[in-house]
Design goal:
- The complex is a heterodimer of chains A (150) and B (281).
- With 150 residues, chain A is an alpha+beta fold.
- Chain A has a single domain, classed as Alpha-D-Glucose-1,6-Bisphosphate, Chain A, domain 4 (2-Layer Sandwich).
- Helices cover 30% and strands 51% of the residues of chain A.
- Chain A contains 4 helices and 7 strands, in the order βααββββββαα.
- Chain A has helices at 13-20, 23-29, 118-122, 124-148, and strands spanning 2-9, 33-40, 43-52, 55-69, 73-81, 87-99, 105-117.
- In chain A, strands 1-7-6-5-4-3-2 form a 7-stranded antiparallel beta sheet.
- In chain A, a hairpin with a 3-residue loop joins strand 4 (55-69) and strand 5 (73-81).
- In chain A, helix 2 (23-29) packs across helix 4.
- By secondary structure, chain B is of the alpha+beta class.
- Among the domains of chain B are: 1-49, 2-Layer Sandwich (Uridine Diphospho-n-acetylenolpyruvylglucosamine Reductase, domain 2); 176-280, CO dehydrogenase flavoprotein, C-terminal domain (Enolase-like, domain 1), CATH 3.30.390.50.
- The relative contact order of chain B is 0.12.
- The model of chain B has no long low-confidence stretch (mean pLDDT 96).
- The chains are: A alpha+beta (150), B alpha+beta (281).
- At the A-B interface, helix 3 and helix 4 of A face loops of B.
Chain lengths: 150, 281
């Protein structure tokens, strides 16, 4: 399942770059994210809960930064599982920042997500809708945090 | 380990749901048990509505409205002679749910509470302007069907509330129909269409299923179309308004684009059948 989107933030690229690499800010912006902990310079551990109707899931994720080129590209891989209930998620992610003509930053993201186990049985169609909704919430919060604190 | 509780009154059921954080009501269990077996839902307690009197059956109220108890099985709805004219759509939808085994176990309340976007009742209820009665810790209230579904599998039901009945306006003397496109007989809909003509034969009410989180209905567009049912251009514009409100998923039953393409075809085809039925009457 491919998830992709683009949004603009009214803040300069260097500032946005610092923020996307700041776990404390990310934990506040990612919907359902309970914690993010840096385990080494290129890896983070996160707990994220998602709910679709009657189905709740709580994932323990590890995000590994595979490569980064400051201040415009991060390539990362997320992998994780749900404690006792066997679902496994993995995603390959690319995040790109570029300046806009008006001094802001255009953020583009792409993620190729796979999901197996119990949640895979439910069908990815609804999860894609949910992912789009969560991305919208993320963008709103992220933008507020950056633009207000600017 | 899940514990199943069998309250004998609605008040007991509401109290049990309030007492246990992870409790869920269970009606016929046709979906919930399957989801539980697949490991998709987990509850400490299931509160069965099976032994509560007054939740089953279909009756005509003094003012002509039709009231369906939430625990009424699909098979009973499909066989009821109270769903006439503009309400026949409800009976027809009930008869197309899954298979005989599911229709003998599954209930209208269970299906509506689960709010699967591709299930059959919601478009039929939306077309028929149903009103849902619920009871919860804060008492009883009513929810009009058109405000009921709020997101994918999310409804206006609050935690701890139980859907107790579905009430339909008195049937009008106008034909109605339910049609679904499905991969095989008994499958969930790829797309579905519930439609009734207005008694003057000049207008319609229509709800599309399986093309968004909830049934798609546009009452304003219906008013604009009134008097122009025989004008293919007007019908096409009406269908385009519903397509614009659709937000279908891509899944094993069909791509989002395929579903969007089905909507105008379903509307034109069911409308043509209903106009013929009206003329023959």
């Amino acid at each position: 399942m491919k998830i992709a989107g683009t949004f603009e933030v009214d803040a300069p690229q260097d500032r946005v770059w610092d923020k996307v690499r700041d776990p404390e800010l990310m934990v506040q912006c990612i919907p359902g994210c309970e914690s993010i902990e840096q385990i080494d310079p290129m890896a983070y551990r996160a707990k994220v809960s998602v709910k679709v109707g009657p189905i709740s899931a709580r994932f323990n994720l590890v995000v590994t930064v595979l490569s980064e080129e400051a201040p415009h590209t991060v390539i990362s891989r997320t992998s994780g599982e749900e404690g006792t209930r066997a679902s496994v998620v993995a995603s390959d992610n690319v995040l790109r920042l570029e300046p806009t003509a008006t001094g802001g930053t255009r953020v583009s993201y792409e993620a190729d997500v796979s999901m197996t186990g119990r949640l895979g049985k439910f069908g990815l169609g609804i999860f894609r809708k949910k992912a789009d909704q969560l991305a919208e919430v993320f963008v709103g919060t992220f933008r507020d945090k950056l633009e207000v604190a600017a | 380990m899940t514990q199943i509780l069998f309250p004998e009154t609605l008040d007991q059921a509401v109290a049990l749901l309030a007492r246990h954080d992870e409790a869920r009501p269970i009606a016929g269990g046709t979906t919930l048990v399957a989801m539980r077996n697949a490991g998709l839902v987990d509850s400490s307690h299931l509160v069965s509505l099976d032994r509560i009197p007054g939740l089953r059956g279909i009756e005509r109220l003094a003012d002509g409205r039709i009231r369906v108890g939430a625990m009424t099985r699909h098979a009973d709805t499909a066989a009821s002679d109270l769903f006439t004219g503009s309400l026949a759509v409800v009976r027809k939808a009930a008869g197309m749910i899954a298979n005989k085994v599911v229709r003998n176990m599954g209930t209208m309340g269970g299906s509506v509470a689960n709010a699967d976007p591709a299930a059959d009742y919601l478009p039929a209820l939306a077309c028929a302007d149903a009103v849902l009665s619920v009871l919860g810790p804060d008492g009883a209230r009513e929810i009009p069907i058109l405000t009921y579904v709020q997101d994918w599998y999310e409804t206006a039901l609050e935690p701890g509330e139980i859907l107790t009945a579905i009430t339909f306006p008195a049937p009008e003397d106008a034909p109605s129909a339910y049609r679904k496109i499905a991969r095989v007989s008994g499958d969930y809909a790829t797309a579905s269409c519930a439609m009734a003509l207005t008694p003057d034969g000049q207008g319609l009410r229509v709800a599309i299923g399986a093309c968004g989180p909830g049934p798609i209905r546009d009452v304003q567009a219906e008013a604009v179309l009134h008097g122009h049912l025989q004008d293919p251009q007007a019908v096409a514009e009406f269908a385009a308004a519903l397509v614009a409100k659709a937000d279908p998923v891509d899944d094993v039953r069909g791509s989002a684009d395929y579903r969007l393409a089905l909507i105008p075809r379903l509307i034109a085809s069911v409308l043509s059948d209903l106009i013929s039925a009206k003329e023959a009457a």
